[in-house]
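Input record (one chain):
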Amino acid sequence: MITAVDTSVLLDIFRADARHGPESRERMKAAYDAGAVVICGIVYAELVPAFGSRTLLDETLQQINTSTSPITTDIAYEAGLRWQRYRQAGGPRERIITDFLIGAHALGAADKFLTRDRGFYTTYFPELSTE
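The corresponding structure, as predicted from the sequence alone:
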C-alpha cells in the first residue's frame, strides 16, 4: 500500500502542533505500517520554509521513511483538467493549481492520500481514497 501525504499533515508533526499533531502522527504511523509513504515535489517545496536547510529537510524525511515521487505529465494533465473544471464552475482562486497537482499526484502515484483537507479532495477527486 502506498500512501501520499499532504503538507499539512507533515507540518502538524514537524511543528508539534498541539491541536492536530497527535492525530497526524497516529495517521502517519498507520500509513507507514501499511506500506510506503510518498510526497510529491510540491509538498517537498511547501516544507522548505519549515526547515533551516535542505540537508535537515532531507534527513528528516529519511528518518520518517518518506520518499519523493515525481509529478509526471499524465499527473499534471489530470490536475489541469480538474482545475479547469473547478474554475469554470466558478471556483474561487483561493484554490490554486498546486492543490490540484497534489491531489492528482496522490491519485496517480498512491493507493491512499493522507490529508486534513478531506472535504476539498473528496469533492474534486472523489475516486481518491483519503485518510
